[in-house]
Amino acid sequence: MVRYSKVQKQVLALYKAFMKEAQARPGLADYIRSEFKKNSVIPKTNTIQIEQVYRRGLRQLKTLQRQDVKGVGVFTKSTSESQKPNKD
Fold first, then answer.
1. Tell me, what is an example of a GO biological process annotation in this record (predicted)?
2. Is residue 81 within 8 Å of residue 37, measured between CB atoms?
3. Whole-Å CA distances, 74 to 32, 41, 62
4. Where are the domains of the chain?
């Protein structure tokens, strides 16, 4: 049986809360998964960064849970060669 630390339990609870909110908003679940996956490479020993990312996640969750929030927009950076400006 796996034993999770207090911080790991908090992060898992945050993930579950985000996924519960994502049920009502299409496309949000993929974004949540990608953000958690991106931050999963933070070393367990870097507690300061983990706490910082965790607190940012809590703020974002509270924003999503507000009744006046209808949807979520995400800006992504394109790395396609065809969209880079020419240097002529």
1. mitochondrial respiratory chain complex II assembly
2. no
3. 11, 22, 17
4. 6-66
Residue 7 three-state SS: helix
Q: What is the pLDDT along the chain (88 residues), one digit of tens a residue?
A: 788 889 999 999 999 999 998 888 878 889 899 999 999 999 989 999 999 999 999 999 998 888 776 666 665 666 665 555 555 5
C-alpha distances in Å from residue 61, one per residue of 13, 17, 48, 54: 12, 8, 20, 10
Please state the three-class secondary structure of 10-61 as a single string: HHHHHHHHHHHHHCCCCCHHHHHHHHHHHHCCCCCCCHHHHHHHHHHHHHHH
- Is residue 1 a contact partner of residue 11, using CB atoms and an 8 Å limit? no
Place of tokens 């367990």: 44
